[in-house]
Amino acid sequence: MTRSLLAAVCIGTTAFAADAPPVTFNRDVLPILQKNCQTCHRPGEIAPMSFLTYREVRPYAKAIKAAVLTRKMPPWFADPNYGHWANAPKLTGEEIRMLAEWADSGAAEGEAKDAPAPVEWPQGWTIQPDLIVKMPKPFHVPVKGAIELTSFILPTGLTKDTWITSIEVRPGNRRVVHHAALSFRPHDANVKYGEPHAQVMLRDENGDQIEKAPSRLGSFTGLEAVFLPGSQPIDFRVHKAAKLIPAGYDILLQIHYTTVGEDADDQTEIGFTIAKEEPSRRFITLSPTSNRGERTFRIPAGDPNWEISTEVQFNQDADIVWFLPHMHLRGKDMIYQLLFPTGEKQIVLSVPHYDFNWQLGYDVDKPIKVPKGTRLLVTAHYDNSANNKFNPNPNKDVRWGDQTWEEMMVPWFGVIVNKSADPRKVVTYTH
Q1: How far apart are CA 418 and CA 412, in angstroms?
Q2: Which of 52, 56, 326, 406 is the most exposed place for a label (fewest CB within 10 A)?
Q3: pLDDT one-digit tens code per residue, 319-358
Q4: Does one domain contain both 369 and 258?
């Protein structure tokens, strides 16, 4: 019996017992929302509405019922047959029953004395940063048009080697930030901090590339953290690990902006927590990409299940602790599979129903041991047919590109290795 069906059975058999007190928002519903929903459903976060008060939540009572019964909310897309996840939603069958009964019984507010104290959410941050680096001035996003990937160099202000234990990239305007990624680089005396730099890309009147994306196999060199819709900061402290920022290094912040039909500004900032002592292990973020060439990455018009894959080989023992699949509007599914030197195979993450609107990171419950010589094969499928309701245009081929109407295949993952390991040598890209 599935969890959804079990929840439905519970509702049908226990919801309206004669001796059960009526379900109210303050006593029964608000604690569930605080634990499971308010991380995203509060002002300034990714969700489109706030669930902090009865007045805010009441109009959505029926929608909440439908969303939790179908497991649409809380959003989670990992196939439960593969892997165990530390950050998987913990909404129980009883909590689902409670939310459904509240909607069906009139969505009463209840007594104010029954409400739990409001959660004291961090002011704008999920982590509590020790160091905040902010773009020195806003970047203007015009009403319309394609904005190519834009880079900014920012100073860390660090004068000695510093181990950091978590990173949070926080957009100033989530409506226009499609995604953001950061890395560290040596300081250049000629750098102008905060000045935007973008690749020049020739496009036609439809926004399609006239210049083809270059063929490339590899990774975003030195990628350290990423922001995507629905993603949460990575906290390395969970694994007793940290990342190293060498003394005097700057931040390279790359942001993909999208227009929203009106003038807008963004001033993204980055928060760091700093290790109190030097760690024994190092967290490294890796992002193998499929070949981007015209012949290799071209999704045919109307194709409902186009496939592409990429593979890396581990050059040393490592622990995998985190995954984050990334595709665009035609992304359909992605599977990460380990191929061990013994010939054994293990699927470590399967996302059968990818959702561009909620690009979640998956934190493993226990580190996955990966011996030297193991290969990681990642396979993705795309739906470029008219059956994909998110498809901008099923009548044309789609190539690699930064824009939403183009496509990507970036299977981010995070590993823990010895602190002396060279991040550039942990894996080799084989195809």
Answers
A1: 20
A2: 56
A3: 999 999 999 999 999 999 999 999 999 999 999 999 988 8
A4: yes
Cβ-based neighbours of 94, under 8 Å, separated by 6 or more: 10
pLDDT at 120: 84
Q: Has residue 126 been placed in a domain?
A: no
Give the domain range for residue 45. Answer: 3-114
Residue 311 has pLDDT above 70, yes or no: yes
Using DSSP's 3-state secondary structure scheme, residue 265 falls into: strand
> Tokens standing for 363?
């934190």
Beta bridge partners of 359: none
Same domain for 110 and 135?
Answer: no
Q: Are residues 213 and 361 in the same domain?
A: yes
**pLDDT above 70 covers what percent of the chain?**
90
Q: What is the 3-state composition of the chain as percent helix, strand, coil, each rounded to the nearest 5?
A: 15, 35, 50
Any idea which residue has 């007190």 for tokens? 21
* pLDDT for the residue numbered 274: 96
User: Comparing 9-18, 156-165, 279-288, which segment has the lowest mean pLDDT?
Assistant: 9-18
- Kindly state whether residues 208 and 298 are assigned to the same domain: yes
- What are the tokens at 346? 């293990």
Q: What is the DSSP string of 148-217?
A: --EEEEEE----S-EEEEEEEEE-S-TTTEEEEEEEEE---TT--TT--EE----B-TTS-BSSPPPP--
Q: Read off the pTM.
A: 0.81
